[in-house]
Write a structure and sequence with these properties.
Length: 176
């Protein structure tokens, strides 16, 4: 059976969908600190750079850097090289920056659309799987996606500098 749009959505729902406008809340702890950087960064991007290209590039970077880390430790039992952690940290930072700027670029170039927003969020979902950020899909208010991404970036850098055994260090021995 073939469905038409009227089988799925009413005319009123289709009208509301076409009128949809994205509203970013940016209500986390780190977003206000990073907004000046992202606002500066988007002004350095060429106007011909398509926002969806930024979105897919960030996703590809996340997938590639994560797969490199998995290659060196497929069962999380081996010590990957330090550079692999740094690569993941850098890749996640690039992804985060592109993700924060793709919508700004779309508005800057007059190319924003509900489909572009859907594409962005779809790529975000795939990226989340690759960097094990399922917790970020929950709404924690002041601690949300940006803070989780920065935490993972810091974890990669710490692993690169001190090795993965740093996570086995007992800090509060009275709790064990």
């Amino acid at each position: 059976m073939i469905f038409s749009s009227s089988d799925i959505m009413t005319p009123l729902q289709l009208k509301k969908l076409s009128e949809h406008k994205y509203n970013s809340c940016g209500n986390t702890l780190l977003d206000p600190l990073l907004q000046p950087f992202w606002n500066w960064l988007v002004t350095k991007l060429p106007l011909w750079l398509a926002p969806n290209l930024m979105t897919i590039s960030g996703l590809i970077i996340t997938i590639v850097t994560t797969l490199i880390l998995v290659y060196y430790s497929p069962d999380a039992q081996q010590e990957p090289p330090s550079w692999a952690f740094l690569l993941c940290a850098a890749g996640l930072f690039v992804y985060q920056s592109l993700d924060a700027c793709d919508g700004k670029q779309a508005r800057r170039t007059g190319s924003s659309s509900p489909l572009g927003e859907l594409f962005d969020h779809g790529c975000d979902s795939i990226s989340t799987v690759f960097v094990s950020l399922g917790i970020c899909s929950l709404r924690f208010g002041k601690f949300d996606v940006t803070e989780c991404q920065c935490t993972i970036i810091i974890a990669h850098v710490i692993s690169a500098v001190f090795g993965t055994n740093v996570w086995l260090t007992k800090v509060l021995t009275f709790l064990s």
